[in-house]
Amino acid sequence: MSLRDQLVPFLAQDRVLTRLFERAAYSCDASFYTLTPRAVVRPRDTDEVRRLLAWSRRSKVPLTFRAAGTSLSGQAVTDGVLVDVSRHWRALQVLEGGKAVRVGPGVVGGFVNAHLARFGAKLGPDPASINACMIGGIVSNNSSGMCCGTERNAYRTLRSLRFMLTSGTLIDSGAPDAEATLRKKEPALASGLMRIKTRIEGDARLGDRIRAKYRMKNTMGYSLNAFLDFDNPLPILWHLLVGSEGTLAFIEEATFETVPDLPRKSAGLMFFENVPRACEAIEPLKTSGAVALEIMDRASLRSVVGIPSVVDLVAPLPASAAAILVEYQAADEKGLADFETAFTSVTLPLLSPARLTRDAKGQADLWAARKGLTASIGAMRPSGTSMIFEDVAFPHEHLAAGVIDLQALFVKHDYPDAIVFGHAKDGNIHFLLSQSFNDQRSIDQYARFTDDLVDMVVGRYDGALKAEHGTGRNMAPFVEREWGSDLYAIMREIKHLFDPDGILNPGVLMNDNPRIHLENLKALPKVEDEIDRCIECGFCEPLCPSRDLTVTPRQRIVLRRERARLLAAGDSKGARALEEGLDYAVLDTCAADGMCATACPVGIDTGAFVKHRRAERHGALASALATTLAKNFGATESIARIAGRAPQLPRTSREGAAAVYLPSCVTRVLGGDLPATVLRVAKRAGLSLWIPPDVHGRCCGMAFSSKGYDAARENRVGDMHAKLERWTNGGTLPVVIDTSPCAYSLKNDGVRVIDSVAYAHEVVCPRLTIKKKLGRVAVHPVCSIVKLGLAGTLASVVRACAEEAIVPIAAGCCGFAGDRGFTHPELTEAATAREAAELRAAGPFDMAVSSSRTCEIGMERATHLPFVSVWHLLDRVTS
User: Fold this and answer.
1) Which DSSP state fits 33?
2) Percentage of residues of the chain with pLDDT beyond 70
């Protein structure tokens, strides 16, 4: 019986993925390892997970639970069965006025924080991947971050866990009878944990070793501190699950105690002669109350680009220099002022005077410099190389020496572009380097470097090889070296107590193969320049409208690379097998909205890549027909207007016009009375707008661009630009466009093109009299509004007209993508599901508005609310 036939009796067929492209799409996480699962499954509920675990025990086929797949150490890839919990495990409940939150493993951390923001709270863990990683990974890797230290990591801030053991036993540690349930249903596990506790407490050497290891950040191996922190088997058990990387149980739900999201902040960048001098400042700055102390070596500072205010500060620094980014946070002005006073009283060996800034833009620039290091190195690395992103921790007294020795290793092993940075307050150092795994020489280079790294961190300084990224495949061979044989034996006993059949993520946290970190390495063939820079981090995925239907931007790139690997290896049969279903998943259901680029650390627009691939599909005849259609767009528009019974455009005069008003082709066909409404509202504001009489047939070309018809697009763009020059008399008048995607795509040197939302906010609204505000208005910011930086502007316009402007936390691309909502309605249905559910729960509304007619149609279908242009709202409250 095939694997698929074994699984579909208790999982729906569409939730058992066995085609090659479906499995290959999950062959990578954010690490430099790759393994293709035998199947990918998506259980919906507890019963299905229980049956899946039972099947795994019988079949001896292991399971790996995966949430976001942002793991940096290979925890989320497998050649067994991969269990994707990113789609159906998204429960979220804010508790006790924001003091706690109960959340499923498939919820993105940043999404949780967005729900907590109105309560002035947030999650304690604050990893740099917070807007992409999910709760399952945050718990399973014991996430921390820049400001949380060890006091606010997942281990310290969790209130309870609901989890399922491999036996199928489900326990909610927050339930009153949880302890009794554990002892009754899992007596061997409960008693075994207590035996281990007794052994540790009976050997002072073991207890002292554990305490010493957790004085610094440490995610290497299992959380043995649980045996010292708790007295009963239940809390020991569920705290062992934290940081266990999916090797002990399935975590179904987590309840966190939240921490305050302090509103007052002050930050500054300090420069030092060298790393030792910078490290001298850490303890006094900690004592002054700093919540973040981010150290950066000179190499990392050289990689800062695109932030002039920071680049100018960095340019004159000597070659040995180092910097520390400091931040203070407080609940009120007095508290922040006290911290600033404490800062100024600290004597520091600085190269130049340090200043703190409260300016939000200034702080954003400083943090962009720090957080942008990944992007900088990722963009600069040679094509075909992976980006190694590792983290270690040193005891505070050895931090300076550790960094210097780490830099020396880069020189010794020929990594000239490597950089060092990290959370100095916690002795936690990150480093980035480019590494090829395309030949044995390169693999040997990495092997020698890793051996020396282990010798230095563990042998010389007794540090932690993993401070916050989790053990994973790349450090599994070294767990015993770091912890010692006695405590390593206890870890093995823990694994056997929880998972006697070895079915959960085997070999990830402990492995008998001393070279497992050098196997299944990710070779990155050169494919296209536009995607070669991808580091497969997964940051793009939460923004992708097709993420719950087919594949994500990262997976589109992974599949492109897999195809290249198969062809390079001469495996034409494998390449053909990969193609089955690929076009629909990769090309047809991509909205090509470019939102992925806004989250990508290296700025990759996978939508642009998809458009190019669509162009490759077209034959010469199809391309010629598209170009003919573009050249005769007026006739096409006339037919569409007749079919849609679109009203004629109002007649206007150019004389005295404040702006050229360009109703988009979508508006002219589907927009109904929008042009008349815009003119009417503008007139109330004392403004005259001119619609050119020859606007018929004009188009920005986006309709052709999204399908990959480049020649047709160029035809329309060239025609439009010529018209804009003439209509505006060489740019003397601005052009207002009523459809945000068109405003975004239509760029013209010398002519000011303004989205109508910006025009309403900047020019029209200040001249209007609001007669009576509406109560509650739902707002959908379309992708282009977000990319134009106008989402807040749209909300401001609505707030001027309504008591409440409700912008869903789950708002995102609706997936309509011009006409894709007509040709592939399933894309829009999947893309809008969460936003629509949020709006339905938040209703009723007096009105629902957006700024693109096709997107409004998509939102109407999803929510059954009559979405209209924001101009209709302005018309209603001013009439």
Assistant:
1) B
2) 100
| Among candidate residues 549, 821, 446, the one with its CA nearest the CA of residue 666 | 821
The pLDDT tens digits of the residues spanning 343-396 come to 999 989 999 998 999 999 999 999 988 888 887 787 788 888 999 999 999 999
Which among 697, 712, 703, 716 is positioned nearest to 624, based on CA atoms? 712
Coil vs helix vs strand at 35: coil
- The rounded distance, in Å, linking the Cα atoms of 541 and 552 is 6
**Cα–Cα distance measured from residue 231 to residue 736, given in angstroms and rounded to the nearest whole number:** 68
Determine the Cα–Cα distance for residues 772 and 777; give it in Å rounded to an integer. Answer: 14
Residue 749 pLDDT grade (very low, low, confident, very high; cuts 50, 70, 90): low
Q: Strands of 521-626 (E only): list them.
A: none
- Euclidean distance between CA atoms 417 and 496, whole angstroms: 43
Q: What does the pLDDT look like over 685-720, one tens digit per residue?
A: 999 999 999 999 999 988 899 999 999 999 998 999
**Cis? peptide before 105, omega within 30° of 0:** no
SS3 29: coil
And the tokens for 757?
């939302």
Residue position matching structure tokens 């490290």:
279
Cβ-contact 254, 92 below 8 angstroms: no
pTM of the model: 0.95
Residue 179, token pair as written in the block: 């302890």
Give the Å distances, CA to CA, from 26 to 68, 76, 78, 458, 520: 11, 9, 9, 33, 14
Question: Tokens standing for 299?
Answer: 């190499």
Across 691-834, the runs of DSSP E, i.e. the strands, are 735-737, 753-755, 774-779, 802-806
Tokens of 620: 């010469």
- Given a cut of 90, whether residue 509 has pLDDT beyond it is yes
User: Terminus-to-terminus CA distance in the chain, angstroms?
Assistant: 70
Nearest Cα residue to 53 out of 22, 89, 11:
11
- Grouping H, G, I as helix, E, B as strand and the rest as coil, residue 758 is helix
Alpha helix locations (H) across 346-484?
A: 360-371, 373-380, 399-412, 440-454, 472-475, 479-483
Contacts of 3 (CB under 8 A, 6+ apart): 18, 38, 39, 61, 81
Q: Rg of the chain's alpha carbons, rounded to an integer?
A: 29
Question: What is the bridge-based pairing of β-strands 250-257 and 259-260?
Answer: unpaired
Let me know: does 386 contact 32? Beta carbons within 8 Å: yes
**Would the CA dihedral through 227, 230, 235, 241 be positive or negative?**
negative
Could you give the strand order of the β-sheet that contains 81-84, starting from the edge strand earlier in sequence?
Answer: 16-17, 39-41, 81-84, 63-66
